Amino acid sequence: MRSRGFSLVEVLVALLITGMVLVAVFTNLESTRRAVDAIHNIVETESVGPRILDQLRDDLDHLAVYDADDYRVLHGESDHLGGADADRLDMIVLARTRLPFRHPLFERQLHPPLAEVGYRLRENPERPELMELHRREDALVDDEPWRDGSFAMLYDRVLNFDLRYLEQPALDPVWEDSWDSEQRESLPFAIEVLLEIEVQPRRSSESLAILGTNRARLDFTDLMVLEPEQRWLFRQRLHPTVPETGGGAGGGGGGGAEEGPGRGTGGAPDGAAETVGTTGYGGGMGGLGPR
């Protein structure tokens, strides 16, 4: 019995059907890949702005208002870079540093409880129309707290970074472009932050076509009101006592004051934390030891 093979027409029909199936499969894969890229851009980029603002708010919440040397705690300066707003902000923060510091005595990496913190913008070397936002941190608080330190980049596609300061709340507020706590001997009532960034595409123009041109730039605005307790403690210049690092505000409900070596709180206002410890920083590292 002779075996019969496929005819040329049958082979061509089979190839045609196979090609149609492959085209449909690859088309669906390409659409899925573009959708994934677009979702990545939306989620990642829209979360960048809130993360930066949360970091800035956290630093402001931990201003070193105790034992302020010559009221030198916060310094905001209006600046421009390539025609865009590139304001600078520096402060002294009483909180565990994010970047490690190598202690020369103990020869190990430590995270000191006090640091100089700043926000700087630099030109993006690959795209001059964009800027890079960096967070500065220096564990050694010295006579020049607004300089030096280690820089960590927060985002590399910043279009504008504008800061405005409000001295007191009012129906018709008067905003200022700069603030120097040393000259004013006070902290601002609130700081308004305007951050404008560009979408960072996962695959350049492909996902941007799905996002649309109106999604290429995102604006984030936040009004950061400083706590009344912070401003009151700063004006009173309490020193050399600072809150105990292990306890929360208020010290567990005792309501009294525990005096450190020199003086107590001097009568905090309603709602202010009264329980204090004995760890002073006095412009230096302040009792930094091994952990």
Detail the poorly predicted runs. Answer: 245-291
Number of strand segments: 13
Helix content: 25-40%
| Gyration radius from CA atoms, angstroms | 28 Å
Structural class estimated from helices and strands? alpha+beta
What's the total helix number?
A: 4
The coarse overall form would be elongated
Task: Indicate how many domains the architecture comprises.
Answer: 2
Q: What distance lies between the first and last C-alpha atoms, to the nearest angstrom?
A: 90 Å
How would you characterize the overall build of this protein?
26% of the residues lie in helices and 26% in strands. With 291 residues, the chain is an alpha+beta fold. It folds into 2 domains: 44-227, no CATH class; 238-286, no CATH class. The strands form 3 sheets. Strands 1, 4, 7, 8, 9, 10, 11, 12 and 13 form a 9-stranded antiparallel beta sheet that branches. The radius of gyration is 28 Å and the shape is elongated. The N and C termini lie far apart (90 Å).
